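Entry 14. Ran structure prediction on the chain below.
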Amino acid sequence: MKGRTYITFINIKCAIILLGMCISTHISGQIHLNNPSFEDTPSDATTPMGWFECQEYTTPDIMPGYWGVYNEASEGETYVGMITRDNGTFESIGQRTSKTMKKDICHTFTIDLAHSKSYSGFNQPIKLRIWIGDKKCGTHQLVFESDFIDKIEWETFEVEFLPENDARYVLIEAFYKEGWFKRKGNILIDNMSAIRVCSRV
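Output, structure tokens:
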């Protein structure tokens, strides 16, 4: 009886160690973003900490509380709002990831999107595009393009992609239509997850 109990204890101990190794490997395999929930002091024309603007002379807004936008955050206290304009300009932000997104390896992440019915006249629904690249603000590979986001309730989108080349930067872009950005619209962005290697084979 004691022998069986000892063997069972050893088996349980081995299982716990193996589980710990798997969890550690899973966590270390994540590619982290700096401030993925866009937390900062609410302010207009301000890029949240950890991100940089990728369009000259135009920056996003840290919400809520400006331009008539009072939607609650999906996660945390704040989120980012970006617009497209009828003069063809638009807003985008980016950052360098903690690790390289390796070529030909499946990656995945989630992001929450919503729309504000009131945004100082920039009230029409627009889309969000997400790019990856090997240079700051690079648009080398489009990995996600949403439908028109027209709901004030947050919706979580899962993005899955296969890098065509090693990439170290991600860029988030307010978007309307290819070759024609002339729409006064807005999109709200929050709660972007870490980038993970896909669990499926």
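The helical segments are 2-28. Will compare against last week's run tomorrow.
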